[in-house]
Amino acid sequence: MRDFSSDRRWLAINTATLKSWSLEQVIAGCSRAGITAIAPWRDIVQQCGVERAAKLIRESGLTVTCLCRGGMFTTADEAGRRAALDDNRRAVDEAHAIGAGSLILVAGGLPPGSKDLTGAHRQVRDGIAALLPYARSARMPLAIEPLHPMTAADRACINTLAHANDLCDELGDGIGVAVDVYHLWWDPELPRQIARSGKRILSYHVCDWLVPTRDLVFDRGMPGDGIIDLRAIRATVEAAGYQGHCDVEIFSAQNWWKRDPEEVIRICVERHQTVV
Ligand code: ZN
Questions:
Q1: Mean pLDDT on 156-161
Q2: What angle do CA 210, 214, 219 make, to 5 degrees?
Q3: From the centroid of its chain, how far is CA 257?
Q4: Angle at CA 167, nearest 5°, toward 166 and 170?
Q5: Distance (Å) from CA 180 to ligand 1 centroid
Q6: Would you say residue 271 has pLDDT above 90?
Q7: How far, in Å, from the CA of 233 to the mean position of ligand 1?
Q8: How far is the centre of ligand 1, averaged over its atoms, from the C-alpha of 2 (Å)?
Q9: What is the mean pLDDT of the chain?
Q10: Distance 249 CA to ligand 1 centre (A)
C-alpha cells in the first residue's frame, strides 16, 4: 500500500468539499496549498464557463481526476430520456474540455410516481448503452458510482458495486466504476467486488460516516472523524490495481461548509497523510 505520510501527490479535492468557493477560488486555493488535483462538479465549471475553466485548469497544471457528474437516466417518458442523453453528451464534452480522467455517472432514482424499480434499472442500463458510443469516440471513460441504498428512490438505483460491475460486464469497453467509501462501506460484499472491479476502478472518493448521521445527504464526515475503516478499504482498492488519486468529497451543511475553505484544505491534507 502506498505511503501517504509525507506525500500529497495523490490527494485530490472534490469541489463540493469547498462549497463556498468558485472554480477560480478552488484552483487558486489548491495551488497555494500544494494540492495537485481536483474533482470539479459541473455547476461550478459551467458558472466559470467551460472554455475558461479548461484554460485556467491547464494553466494551473492541476490534474482533473473526474467530473461530477452525468447520469440521471431514469425518466417518465421518451422526451425525458432524449433530454437526459443530450445532457450526458454535453457532460462528456465538458469532461473532455477540462481534461478529466473520467465522467462520473449517478444512475437516477425512480421516475416520479413510479414503483417500477426493475424498470428503472433497465432505463439506467439502456441510458448508459446509448451514451457509450459517444463517450468512446471522445475517449472519455464513464465511471458508474453506486450510491448508498438510502438514495435508491430519489437519486440512484444502482446501490452496490456488484450491480455496477454487472453493468460493466454487460456493456463492455469504455466503462468502469467509482468507489466512494461513504456509499459502499457497509456492504459485506465490498472486498470481493473491489477485487472483481480490478482495473475498472476509475475513481476513489473518501470522506467518513458519522455516528449519528444527522442528515442523509449533507452530513458527511472528514476522513478520520467517523467509523469507516479507510485504510482497509484503500488497501483493497490498491490490491485490485488502483494507483490513482483519493478524492476528498464532503457534503457537510452544518460543519465543513461553514468553515474557512483554507482551513478545510489544511485538514484534508493532514487527514490524507494520517488516516486515508
Ligand atoms: Zn463520490
A1: 98
A2: 60
A3: 18
A4: 90
A5: 5
A6: yes
A7: 15
A8: 21
A9: 98
A10: 6
146 Cα to the center of ligand 1, angstroms: 9
Amino acid 155: pLDDT: 97
Q: Which residue has the cell 417518465?
A: 76
For residue 86, give every residue at least 6 positions away whose Cβ sits within 8 Å of its Cβ, in sequence order, or none. none
Nearest Cα residue to 170 out of 117, 204, 201, 126? 126
For ligand 1, the distance from its centroid to the CA atom of residue 46, given in whole angstroms, is 19
Please report which confidence band the pLDDT of residue 8 belongs to, taking 50, 70 and 90 as the band edges: very high
Side chain identity, residue 213: T
Please give the distance, rounded to the nearest whole angstrom, from the Cα atom of residue 176 to the centre of ligand 1: 14
> For residues 108-132, b (16+ Cβ closer than 10 Å) or e, as one string?
bbbbeeeeeeeebbebbbebbebbb
Helices (H) and strands (E) in the chain, counts: 10, 9
| Amino acid 76: pLDDT | 95
Residue 216 pLDDT more than 90? no
The rounded Å distance from CA 269 to ligand 1 centre is 18
Residue 168 corresponds to which amino acid?
C
Q: What pLDDT score does 189 carry?
A: 98
pLDDT, mean of residues 77-92: 97
Ligand 1 centre distance from Cα of residue 217 (Å): 12
Share of the chain above pLDDT 90, in %: 100
**What domains are there in the chain, each with its CATH number?**
37-243 (3.20.20.150)
